[in-house]
Task: structure prediction
Amino acid sequence: MELRPGKVLIREEEIARRVAEVADEINRDSDGRPLTVVGVLDGCLLFLSDLMRRLSMPIEIVLLRVKTYGNATAPQKKPAISEDDIAVVRGRHVLAVDDIYDSGGTLSALTEALARLGAASVRTCVLLQKEREHAEAVDVDYVGFTVPDVFVVGYGLDYAGKWRNLAHIAELEGVDEGRKIG
Ligand code: IMP
Ligand code: MG
Result:
């Protein structure tokens, strides 16, 4: 069984329209105040690059990687965040941006770290939120789309490092090798 993008869940034009709406909401709420945007790599790449060019306040970008240890057989440990990478947030109004709110582990660890480092305020923004029980409840301020509890790829989201470059969001599907043509 090979896994690859199947059914298109969100088309490119829908993403563009919604990203513009989310940016408008952030602009309205921020009232021109400078914002430090903290993006979680690598998944935020496409979303953040489209979102940031529509933000109208002065912004500063901080990017970080969040490492999650563990695998399918071992319980997932809490995501590890290098506080040195984001220490510049002290006293700043912060918008944390991630590709997807799934279990909530990443966003909750990140918002905790930002608060601990003395951010003046922390708001959160995700492109996608999964329709599932979130192990770690986070109050997400801006959500692009809600998606079913399936594995999705495209527009920054990967499966095993692949499919991030798709312009749309698709469901990852199993393809029966025996039935493949060509
Ligand atoms: P969390 O479970 O909310 O901490 O999400 C952690 C990370 O898992 C996200 O930032 C994504 O990188 C990744 N992830 C979760 N669900 C999906 C998915 O459906 N497709 C691709 N990546 C996902
Ligand atoms: Mg990922």
